[in-house]
Amino acid sequence: MLDIVIAGAGGCGREVYEMAKETYSPEEFRIKGFLTDIPTDLDDYPDIRKEADIVGSIRDYEVQENDRFLLAIGDAAGRKKVAGILKGKGAKFLNLIHPSAICSAYATLGEGIILYRMAGISDHAKVGDFCLINSLGSVGHDVVLGACTVVCPFAAIGGNAKIGEECFISTHATISPKLTVGARSCVSANSFVARNVPEDSFVMGVPAKNY
Question: Which of 50, 52, 59, 104 could form a disulfide with 123, with the two C-beta atoms 3.0–4.6 Å apart?
Fold first, then answer.
């Protein structure tokens, strides 16, 4: 039996914990607990702590042979940082694809992907390591999604778009087909991207403009 360790114990961590229970067979996996550098993260959630408590900090935890990790950090830069720390310790990551999610058999997935309930990845999309696609987020056909990018609920990325590493595509944002969003950029909620977005940008509005 393998032990699941959830890296992050905030809101994202609690969501991932619940989805992990719905996704992985208890005959094959045991949820060992959470890693967090904030020891009070679960103080208001005794129901969860009864089942899976904090087992250490991200920086100090010693990786065990049977450990398999889920990266439950909600922001793109944080995902890259924590993934790097744990990979440096020899951590092995699982992909969590919730049973209600739709993922094309022709899509290419990297390591450490989190695919929430009812999220979708279409055919021949390429999803980089440690991406997170939240509930009802949609990644169109032939999209390239850079590592550690976060796609929020109801966000839609049109076919053949290219999204750089560490991007944050906020709730209800729409990226038109064939466009590029540069690395480390944020698309604000309810925005419509109708032209390419440079690296390190913050865009918002309809159509989205750089601020």
Answer: 104
